[in-house]
Design goal:
With 315 residues, the chain is an alpha/beta fold. Helices cover 49% and strands 15% of the residues. The termini are close together. The relative contact order is 0.17. The model has no long low-confidence stretch (mean pLDDT 95).
Length: 315
């Protein structure tokens, strides 16, 4: 068996969802439907049906997307363990995926997490009703230069860097008009592209501070344990063991940027050379290639991907 101290599991967030997701993996293992059935019971509606039949507009509503992605990531993790896969040295999740990582690491119960992320989505939408905010992907700019452009474009409004996804690939968020100004300024300053994203909520910016404060109250009521393996958090690229530290990191994560580039670089600096993306799609695998071409990332999207990843991690 190879050294699992060199492996990290990664859980994707919003943006990786799609109608029909997890169908192939459900054919590979009955555990997928079991996890989704448990999620449906916790939520009070048929989450699997929504993921398979839609409507797509419902799946893309953040209060539904978040539990759907958590269930998908955790189901994939359960299939991995059921197939004889070994636990990694460390875990991390992109935005919403941080909750999935904490569930997989035993810090949060699945039912509590499912209900919490549905609430998180509702609080986010209340904090910034549809049309108020926006997010945009900006490609081909230095992080510091883009941060300065956002500061200049903000005026009396809010716009800032929200997701540092990879070098030259940053998402900005804030008031729609401020985001649009920042996009124009970024293009004038030499950005390769600056395009608005089809999202209903401007995540990871100061517009989410009221939602974070409400979420913090809810998190105080949750039972949280020390994660094993450790989970690297988005807000400060640090791992925490104490429940109150984890609660604080989850609340701050809602309005502070996702530092994904730093997260992957931190993990490779700790000796991680193999990443396994645990959930639908290959978004994180793509980002990882942009961050460090030397690392390998397996995306567990179907049975064949499991077989390939197992072959790499075991001898």
């Amino acid at each position: 068996m190879s050294d699992n101290n060199k492996t990290a599991f990664l859980f994707p967030g919003q943006g990786s969802q799609s109608l029909g997701m997890m169908a192939e993996l459900a054919e590979f293992s009955p555990l997928v439907r079991k996890v989704f059935d448990q999620a449906s019971q916790a939520l009070g509606f048929d989450l699997w049906g929504m993921c398979q039949q839609g409507p797509e507009t419902a799946l893309n509503q953040t209060e539904n997307t978040q539990p759907a992605m958590l269930a998908a990531g955790f189901a994939t993790w359960r299939v991995w363990l059921d197939s004889g896969g070994q636990a990694p040295a460390v875990m991390a999740g992109h935005s919403l995926g941080e909750y999935t990582a904490l569930v997989a690491a035993g810090a949060l119960s699945f039912d509590d997490a499912i209900r919490t992320v549905a609430l998180r989505g509702r609080l986010m939408q209340i904090a910034a009703p549809e049309g108020v905010g926006a997010m945009a992907a900006v490609l081909g700019m230095d992080d510091a230069d883009l941060a300065a452009i956002c500061e200049q474009a903000a005026g009396d409004e809010i716009v800032s860097c929200a997701n540092f996804n990879a070098p030259g690939q940053v998402v900005i968020a804030g008031h729609r008009s401020a985001v649009e100004r920042a996009c124009e300024a970024a293009k004038s300053a030499g950005a390769r592209r600056a395009l608005l994203l089809p999202v209903s909520v401007p995540s990871h910016c100061l517009l989410m501070k009221p939602a974070a404060e409400e979420l913090a109250v809810h998190l105080q009521e949750l039972e949280i344990s020390s994660p094993s393996p450790g989970v690297l958090h988005n807000a400060d690229v640090a791992a925490y063991e104490q429940p109150d530290e984890i609660r604080d990191a989850l609340a701050r994560q809602l309005w502070q940027p996702v530092r994904w580039t730093e997260t992957i670089r931190q993990l490779t600096a700790q000796g991680i050379s193999r990443f396994i993306e645990c959930g639908p799609g290959r978004v994180l695998a793509g980002l990882n290639r942009r961050i460090d071409r030397a690392v390998e990332t397996h995306a567990l999207t179907d049975g064949a991907a499991f077989v390939a990843a197992m072959g790499e991690t075991e001898t």
